[in-house]
């Protein structure tokens, strides 16, 4: 009886250890992402130079998802206080002033004339949500570089939100969870005439 109990305990310990290794491997897979550029993105680490290899890696991913080549020039990143980023957004899309009530702060905007992505100075790139903001704005850069045409301003947001959601899903997150953008709100924000 003692030997059987010892073997059972040893077997349970081995099973628990293998499950722990498997869970750890799964966590590392979720927290690290090597994109086509060869650059490894690690969630939980701030990115001191997001305009360098990180931007190139995200552009590689966006290009693959869109089935488009990466534009020759990538946008410049400029950091501003949240209020200034929101003011730039409302200046560019004055029709959104009424729609902004009750929305979370605007964290980024792409200026197609200057080829600049403005990011809130609170952005660190340490979370999947932070990186998804950059993915969203890179989609707009691709749209501009490839001269994509849209029925209205809201319609060009659909693909940007789609890829942002896809990026978040890689890490088990969502637009609703991280940005309080539920499916109905998303429909309103990406439909012409709403």
Descriptive notes:
- The protein is mainly α and 194 residues long.
- 54% of the residues lie in helices and 10% in strands.
- The chain has helices at 2-31, 50-66, 82-92, 128-145, 155-170, 175-179, 183-190; strands at 32-34, 40-42, 76-80, 108-111, 116-120.
- The strands form two sheets. Strands 3-5-4 form a three-stranded mixed β-sheet, with helices on both faces.
- The longest helix is centred in the N-terminal third of the chain and has 30 residues, at 2-31.
- Residues 5-30 and 94-104 have low confidence and may be disordered.
Q: Determine the structural class based on helices, strands and strand pairing.
A: mainly alpha
Strand content: 5-15%
Poorly predicted spans: 5-30, 94-104
Helix content: 40-55%
Task: Calculate the terminal CA-CA distance, rounded to whole Å.
Answer: 73 Å
Order of neighbouring strands in the sheet with most strands: 3-5-4
Overall 3D shape: globular
Mean pLDDT: 79
Alpha-carbon Rg, integer: 21 Å
- Number of E-state strands: 5
Number of helices: 7
The helix/strand order is HEEHEHEEHHHH
Largest sheet: 3 strands, mixed
């Amino acid at each position: 009886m003692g030997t059987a109990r010892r073997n059972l305990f040893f077997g349970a310990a081995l099973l628990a250890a293998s499950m722990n290794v498997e869970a750890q491997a799964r966590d590392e897979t979720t927290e690290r992402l090597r994109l086509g550029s060869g650059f490894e993105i690690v969630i939980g680490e701030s990115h001191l130079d997001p305009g360098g290899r990180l931007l190139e890696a995200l552009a590689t991913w966006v290009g693959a998802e869109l089935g488009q080549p990466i534009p020759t020039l990538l946008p410049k990143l400029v950091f501003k206080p949240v209020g200034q980023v929101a003011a730039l957004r409302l200046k560019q899309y004055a029709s959104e002033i009424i729609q902004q009530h009750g929305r979370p702060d605007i964290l980024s905007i792409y200026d197609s004339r200057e080829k600049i992505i403005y990011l809130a100075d609170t952005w660190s790139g340490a979370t999947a949500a932070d990186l998804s903001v950059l993915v969203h704005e890179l989609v707009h850069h691709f749209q501009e570089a490839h001269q994509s045409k849209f029925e209205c301003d809201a319609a060009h947001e659909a693909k940007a939100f789609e890829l942002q959601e896809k990026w978040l899903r890689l890490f088990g997150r969502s637009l609703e969870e991280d940005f309080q953008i539920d499916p109905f709100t998303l429909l309103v924000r990406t439909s012409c005439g709403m």
